[in-house]
Design goal:
Shape: globular
Strand order of the largest sheet: 3-4-5-6-7-8-9-10
Radius of gyration: 19 Å
Number of domains: 1
Oligomer: single chain
Number of helices: 10
CATH class: Alpha Beta
CATH superfamily: NADP-dependent oxidoreductase domain
Order of helices and strands: EEEHEHEHEHEHEHEHHEHH
Structural class: alpha/beta
CATH topology: TIM Barrel
CATH architecture: Alpha-Beta Barrel
Distance between the termini: 28 Å
Length: about 325
């Protein structure tokens, strides 16, 4: 399958998802306005998939960018695929729609194209400015899912999915009595050091699309990434393969994921890199180089979120 920036994967519910998206998470020291400008620039370049989340705290700015590009005629609303995420403190079924409507209000959009559970674990409802320690909750995510199904039926979201679920958690959801809609996707950390081969195989068997974040290793944010972890883009094998194609290591790292049939979220607010990232559609890795890059797998996870390790639904105790 030849890939272009306009290529979309058909989800099992009939909706379509662009294979490359703009990731909009930024650390607290990045001005919110940077997200607005980067999103506008990305849409001008041809990005149509925008990935954000309530907990990122920048939905107002990202929504402003999307709406301005609709207003100036660059895109129509239906050409944009916007992913939002239900934060864990809204998992109680009576709070799910409230969480969704908070995002819709911030974005000033009528609907989301995709709404996903950000993690499989729940947290106690709390004021977003609460500085108290994280308080675990025990809401069954199957009940949360039923509320998401109702949001889809109400026309507030086109598709629903999950993020950071392991196989066991997906199995539990898929075998839930009375399941109305399967998750269309599972958004997970995915890169050459964590190729998720078993999870990918399982999700493909269930017609669930994998969506990849941390595709270049991570932004190395000191608050959540171990500073001693290896820098993925400095890997000598990756750099060697990139040299063969006269491409950057970042382009090769992303192309590898795309050729696996996985959707890539490219996170950058840098105009030059946003443009360069679309170079992934100008070349194709041969089977030998795909195998070489597969061999870099270390099952290394950058986004471990260890603060949640004691939660019964922490997903990373399992092999996959």
């Amino acid at each position: 399958m030849s890939l272009t920036k306009d290529t979309r994967l058909t989800l099992h519910d009939g909706n379509t998802m662009p294979v490359i998206g703009l990731g909009t998470f930024a650390s607290a020291d990045v001005p919110k306005s940077d997200g607005t400008e980067a999103t506008k620039f990305a849409i001008d370049l041809g990005y149509r998939h925008i990935d954000c989340a309530y907990v990122y705290g920048n939905e107002v700015e990202i929504g402003e960018a999307i709406r301005s590009k609709i207003a100036d005629g660059t895109v129509k609303r239906e050409e944009i695929f916007y992913t939002g995420k239900l934060w864990c403190s809204f998992f109680s079924p009576d709070l799910v729609r409230q969480g969704l409507e908070a995002s819709l209000k911030a974005l000033q959009l009528d609907y989301l194209d995709l709404f996903i559970m950000h993690w499989p674990f729940s947290l106690k409802p709390a004021d977003t400015h609460n500085t108290q320690p994280i308080a675990f909750d025990n809401v069954d995510f199957c009940l949360t899912w039923e509320a998401l199904e109702r949001c889809k039926d109400a026309g507030l979201v086109k598709s629903i999915g999950v993020s950071n679920f392991n196989r066991r958690q997906l199995e539990r959801l898929l075998s839930k009595p009375g399941l109305k809609y399967k998750p269309v996707c599972n958004q997970v950390e995915y890169h050459v050091y964590l190729n998720q081969s078993k999870l990918l195989e399982y999700c493909k068997s269930k017609d669930i699309v994998l969506v990849a974040y941390c595709v270049l290793g991570s932004s190395r944010d000191k608050d959540w990434v171990d500073p001693s972890s290896p820098v993925l883009l400095e890997d000598p094998v990756l750099r060697s393969v990139a040299g063969k194609y006269n491409r950057s290591p970042a382009e090769v790292a992303m192309r590898f994921i795309l050729q696996k049939g996985v959707v890539v979220l490219a996170k950058s607010f840098n105009p030059a890199r946003l443009k360069q990232n679309l170079g992934v559609f100008d070349f194709e890795l041969n089977p030998e180089d795909m195998d070489t890059l597969d061999g870099l797998n270390r099952n290394l996870r950058y986004a471990k979120l260890t603060v949640m390790k004691q939660h019964p639904e922490y997903p990373f105790h399992d092999e996959y």
